């Protein structure tokens, strides 16, 4: 019986190098585009990104190579995982990002990429290899082997070639056919525990699939299928490295470790950082723009006036509380003034007299700065 490893996943042979970085939270997740030639019924891409030509570095909407590099620096990334959509749908952009990241961080900065086989050809693979890509992962269609032979094109280059696919219960026969086909062509097989996505594209529940329990997004029977396939590979004597990536690994390890790294790169001098990487800080809001019902929607509006207003108040706060420049920060993404929890608690009456709403906030260090707790000091 294969034993669960310390990352709550299962592996036969060493994990792919890209995974070795990911489980430590060391990889920037670069979503290059939401454009994709396939329409998968299990697609996990959010409605905000699906089918749209948008770029995100981790949770941060990005537009340039400089934006992407900035996000990588925040988390002290040692590599990048490039995804979509299909990154080959915007190949020039994809290769440009790889080159820029390698130039900035060095040749040891590890880059791996996920793609379907629909857009694969010699020319595209040549461009990816020349850009510095270290590892390519193909996501083949289980219901048709029409494009499977294109995997051979990638084996001409001296990079890591692998297959990555979600474990869809009921597809054991198709998976075994795929394994028989690729066992002597690629270096590794990544099997992902299937999860229901909170989006409009995922049709799994409508198709009769069920989650493990009411608290889980993982699909019932998916993990068991993965373990059965590893047993099949072992019985057949295939020399194929396999990693079964569980939902628990993604949520409890990979994401958690990345958040801790981001916290160290984004924290202000006055922030308190807990063991999970959450930031606790003081926050000063305008009455009309404080967290509450409709808060996230209000942030999408033009906030120039609010920022200008807070910029003026910032000087008053600094003078009244006798603070240094580094003790205060004007957050223009979520218009507010940030400072230490201690200074807010000690001076709440003064701050209220300046027309501000003081609060103690605990939130994620990610780009969306999702609040876990907001305590208003009134």
Summary of the model, kept short:
This protein has helices at residues 17-22, 65-74, 91-105, 122-131, 151-154, 172-182, 222-236, 247-266, 295-298, 304-321, 341-346, 348-353; strands at 10-12, 27-33, 55-57, 60-62, 79-84, 110-115, 135-138, 160-167, 188-193, 241-245, 272-273, 279-286, 329-331, 336-339, 356-363, 371-376. With 378 residues, the protein is α/β, with parallel strands linked by helices. Helix 3 packs parallel to helix 4 and helix 6 (172-182) packs parallel to helix 7.
Give your account of this protein's structure.
The chain is of the alpha/beta class and 378 residues long. It has 2 domains: 10-264, Alpha-Beta Barrel (TIM Barrel); 267-376. It has 12 helices and 16 strands. The chain has helices spanning 17-22, 65-74, 91-105, 122-131, 151-154, 172-182, 222-236, 247-266, 295-298, 304-321, 341-346, 348-353, and strands at 10-12, 27-33, 55-57, 60-62, 79-84, 110-115, 135-138, 160-167, 188-193, 241-245, 272-273, 279-286, 329-331, 336-339, 356-363, 371-376. Strands 1-10-9-8-7-6-5-2-3-4 form a 10-stranded mixed sheet. Strands 11, 12, 13, 14, 15 and 16 form a 6-stranded antiparallel sheet that branches. Strand 13 and strand 14 form a beta hairpin. Helix 3 (91-105) packs parallel to helix 4 and helix 6 (172-182) runs parallel beside helix 7 (222-236). The protein is elongated. It starts with 9 loop residues before the first strand and ends with a strand.
């Amino acid at each position: 019986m294969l034993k669960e490893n310390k990352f709550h996943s299962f592996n036969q042979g060493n994990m792919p190098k890209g995974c070795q970085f990911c489980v430590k939270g060391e990889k920037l997740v670069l979503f290059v585009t939401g454009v994709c030639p396939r329409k998968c019924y299990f697609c996990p891409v959010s409605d905000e990104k699906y089918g749209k030509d948008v770029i995100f570095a981790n949770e941060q909407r990005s537009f340039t190579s400089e934006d992407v590099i900035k996000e990588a620096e925040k988390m002290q990334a040692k590599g990048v995982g490039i995804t979509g959509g299909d990154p080959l749908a915007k190949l020039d952009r994809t290769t440009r990002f790889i080159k820029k990241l390698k130039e900035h961080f060095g040749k040891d900065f590890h880059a791996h990429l996920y793609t379907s086989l629909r857009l694969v050809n010699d020319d595209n693979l040549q461009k990816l290899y020349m850009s510095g890509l270290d590892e390519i992962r193909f996501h083949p269609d289980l219901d048709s082997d029409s494009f499977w032979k294109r995997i051979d094109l990638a084996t001409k280059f001296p990079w890591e070639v692998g297959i990555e696919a979600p474990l869809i219960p009921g597809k054991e026969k198709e998976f075994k056919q795929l394994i028989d086909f690729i066992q002597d062509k690629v270096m590794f097989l990544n099997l992902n525990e299937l999860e229901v996505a909170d989006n409009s594209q995922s049709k799994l529940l409508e198709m009769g699939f069920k989650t493990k329990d009411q608290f889980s997004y993982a699909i019932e029977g998916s993990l068991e299928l993965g373990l059965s396939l590893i047993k099949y590979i072992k019985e057949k004597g295939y020399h194929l490295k396999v990693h079964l990536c569980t939902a628990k690994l993604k949520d409890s390890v990979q994401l958690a470790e990345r958040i801790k790294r981001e916290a160290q790169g984004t924290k202000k001098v006055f922030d308190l950082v807990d063991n999970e990487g959450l930031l606790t800080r003081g926050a000063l809001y305008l009455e009309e723009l404080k967290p509450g019902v409709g808060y996230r929607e209000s942030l999408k509006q033009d906030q120039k006036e609010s920022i200008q207003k807070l910029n003026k108040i910032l000087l008053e706060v600094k003078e009244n509380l006798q603070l240094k420049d580094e003790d205060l920060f004007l957050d223009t993404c979520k218009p507010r003034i940030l400072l230490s929890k201690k200074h807010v608690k000690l001076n709440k009456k003064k701050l209220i007299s300046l027309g501000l709403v003081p609060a103690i906030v605990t939130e994620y260090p990610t780009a969306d700065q999702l609040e876990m707790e907001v305590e208003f000091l009134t």
